[in-house]
Write a structure and sequence with these properties.
The structure is a homodimer. Chain A has seven helices and no strands. The first copy, chain A, has about 100 residues and is mainly alpha-helical. Chain A binds a DNA duplex (30 and 30 nucleotides) through α4 and α5.
DNA sequence: GCCTTCTATATCATATTTGATATATTAATA
DNA sequence: TATTAATATATCAAATATGATATAGAAGGC
């Protein structure tokens, strides 16, 4: 795994406190993290073009802080919430599938 | 929404006890349910070709009953677990993206 | 019939994720 | 600079998801 990718993953506190901890991520765990980050980034791009975090939150009965966390790749945010948020921005299953398929 | 799809969704107790309850699903909620069902079905197909539920469970530090629920579209199963299970069967992000993109 | 393997169902204590709230920070603009 | 809008961070009680365990069915071979 290359340095750039590692830094990208480590950036937001993704489970790691040290490099060796990081290396203990199985391949599957690491892919899962990348899927979350990809959804997170895409959500932010979509949402910024359309509305504020507060507006999106109200559309999906969530809260602005939760949207902020979702867009910043916070580890406490589930894939479920990321997908619900994408859908609330008008994303289709095709859009979402494409984001996930684009990982790696 | 057509009858066939409704029956498919209602089949496993998806939030509904009555038709009117069902109709209270927003478009987004309904898409989310369909994404889960699509992942669920695909997981079952993949897993059956490769291993038992017990084997898959141990590969991903889960339990056989949880895999059974995942494959049967139980409402208590998160998208996260479905994707972790797919990955444990060797599915790639492309495989997963394709399943989601295939919804609707 | 019995035995074995696989899958489904039920229960439950624990862990994670949630929206809400308060508040801090940042950005833009008058 | 002061004001405002937008976003980020912190905390927390409630809701949801979790793996574990026990056990029941189902399907097949003997």
């Amino acid at each position: 795994m290359d340095q750039a990718k590692r830094e990208r993953l480590v950036a937001k506190g993704w489970k790691v406190g040290s490099v060796s901890d990081f290396l203990d991520l199985t391949a599957e765990e690491s892919i899962l993290v990348e899927i979350k980050l990809a959804l997170s980034q895409n959500l932010k791009e979509r949402r910024q073009k359309l509305m504020t975090q507060t507006e999106l939150a109200s559309k999906m009965s969530s809260s602005q802080p939760r949207i902020a966390k979702a867009e910043n790749g916070d580890t406490s945010v589930s894939i479920e919430l990321l997908i619900r948020a994408m859908l609330a921005t008008g994303a289709t299953p095709q859009d979402i599938g494409q984001v996930i398929a684009g990982v790696r």
